[in-house]
Write a structure and sequence with these properties.
alpha+beta; 8 helices; 256 residues
Length: 256
């Protein structure tokens, strides 16, 4: 059984929350989670991110447990490409929406396999015990020199242009979507977040906060609090998805 919790916070600095998240615990036997972090002035960022999560969710409603893995991948890609076209179209028609766009991470999962699609620098991690693995690759200016070994991860994390995206949803008429599938095991946790969390909270802290006591909601709240305590200079949104064993389920129910 998969369990989910999520929360979004405007942070300490921003006036508007341009992050959006949707979770659907029963998509015909599958579990769906979508997170988007909008960008663009005049509140266009929150329009782009809201459109992204709504359109992608809507297009995936016919997917079900019997849908083959290959079709889950192609369906997720198609839903994101379609959302891109509609957001780009609106941005082209309305002057005050020019340049609006959004990141997106979308996950369709059952107990064996998670399909993850993304654009931008919002992230998905898998936490297994004390190990954390980043499952998405940032589409950002600093990621190329980081991959090539020209800068260290620490330098990348503090780089002044770390948030400049090389790819976003809605800014171009067509888009390339990164899609991958991962096998996951009982007690694995998927952490999906906007850069308001990943920019401020270290990987070691992420693991410690996720592995702490309490139910999923409490863990999500701790992660948000961690970002706020570190400055909270951006909107912060967190989705936790756990591949729950009966023991963990029982522990969660007791903690409520």
């Amino acid at each position: 059984m998969l369990k989910l919790a999520y929360q979004s916070d405007v942070g300490r600095i921003r006036m508007v929350n341009e992050d959006r998240a949707i979770v659907q615990e029963d998509l015909n036997g599958l579990t769906l989670a979508i997170l988007a972090d909008g960008m663009g002035g005049h509140q266009a960022g929150d329009i782009a991110s809201q459109m992204a999560v709504d359109l992608i969710q809507l297009q995936l409603q016919s997917m079900n447990r019997e849908t083959p893995l290959e079709e889950r991948c192609s369906g997720l890609r198609a839903a994101i490409e379609s959302a891109n076209e509609k957001i780009f179209e609106l941005a082209s028609q309305r002057e005050n929406y020019h340049g609006m766009g959004t990141t997106v991470v979308a996950v369709v999962s059952d107990e064996q396999t998670a399909v993850i699609a993304h654009i931008g620098d919002s992230r998905a991690y898998r936490i297994r015990g004390e190990e954390i693995e980043q499952l998405t690759e940032d589409h950002s200016l600093v990621n190329e020199p980081l991959k090539n070994g020209q800068i260290t991860r620490e330098e990348a994390e503090h780089h002044p242009r770390r948030n400049v995206l090389t790819r976003a949803l809605g800014t171009e008429p067509t888009i390339e979507v990164d899609v991958r599938e991962i096998a996951w095991e009982t007690n694995d946790v998927l952490l999906i977040c906007s850069d308001g969390l990943s920019d401020l909270v270290s990987r070691e802290q992420l693991v410690a906060l996720v592995n702490g006591d309490g139910d999923l909601k409490a863990k999500v709240q701790r992660l948000i609090d961690g970002a706020l305590e570190a400055g909270g200079d951006d909107n912060v949104t967190v989705i936790l998805m756990v591949n729950a064993a009966d023991a963990l389920q029982h522990h969660d129910e007791e903690a409520r």
